[in-house]
Amino acid sequence: MKNLFLLAAGAMILCMLSFCKNTPLPEGQKVVSDNPQIDPNTPVAAVKRDSTPGFQGCDKATWSPITVSSEEFVYHHYTVRVTRNADGPGEQITVLRDSGRTDFVIPMPEAGYFNGISGSKLFVDAGTGPDNREMFIFDLDKRVQFYNTIYCGEPTIFHAERLHFLLPVDEKDVAKMPDCPEKEQWTKDGLRVGYGQRCIFNLKQRALARKSEWACVPMQ
Questions:
Q1: Using an 8 Å Cβ cutoff, are 143 and 97 in contact?
Q2: Closest residue by Cα to residue 124 from 17, 38, 141, 139
Q3: Which of 5, 28, 151, 209 is spaced 20 to 30 Å from 128 by Cα?
Q4: How large is the C-alpha radius of gyration of the chain?
Q5: Rounded distance, CA 27 to CA 194, Å?
Q6: pLDDT one-digit tens code per residue, 175-211
């Protein structure tokens, strides 16, 4: 009886294997993927929510998606439409201005990304890595770029007027070494220590002030 059971079980397994065997497709027929590629221009459901794109101190906006690869941020006087590049890093930005004024297509730097608005100033962050990135500032009323700088760490803007940021410097150029309590942990995490000089750029006067202050930042 035991042998009969084993023979029956073996026959069942062979039958299952024969059923599951791959069968070649007829000539000319293609496999249809369960996850077809989505067209980046495909519209998406209308959603609106409050958002504050950019860094600390930037203006609030109402965010909504347009397609799977584009979105818009609505401010009081401007609507910023952002489209992600399909063939590489970076974005394309068009600013729709109110009161019948013409649109402003931002001349984007390589690997540039929308990084917020403060008043009539739009910020673009550029770079392909986390260290020593570059900031571009555009005047939306005059439709011009009027400042750019490399920076490290996180910038901050106060009262829509003063932009605080760290200008990267070599360690040998640091006149007064700052306290860096997280230095040991950064090293353990495989990071190195970088240094930046505190700077303030006045957006209204277009004037840069370098402070006699330095800070340390984690670098890759």
A1: no
A2: 139
A3: 209
A4: 28
A5: 61
A6: 999 999 999 999 999 999 999 999 999 999 999 999 9
Residue environment code for 7-40, b if the CB has 16+ CB neighbours within 10 A, otherwise e: eeeeeeeeeeeeeeeeeeeeeeeeeeeeeeeeee
Residues in CB range of 126: below 8 A, 6 or more apart: 90, 109, 110, 111, 112, 113, 133, 134, 135, 136
* CATH entry 2.40.128 includes domain 41-219: yes
Q: The tokens of 207 are what?
A: 């004037």
Phi, psi at residue 11, to the nearest 5°? -65, -40
What are the structural domain ranges in the chain? Answer: 41-219
The pTM assigned to this predicted structure is 0.79
Sheet with 121-126: strands ordered across: 112-118, 121-126, 133-139, 144-158, 162-169, 192-202, 207-219
20-55 pLDDT, tens digit each: 444 455 555 554 555 556 677 777 666 788 999 999
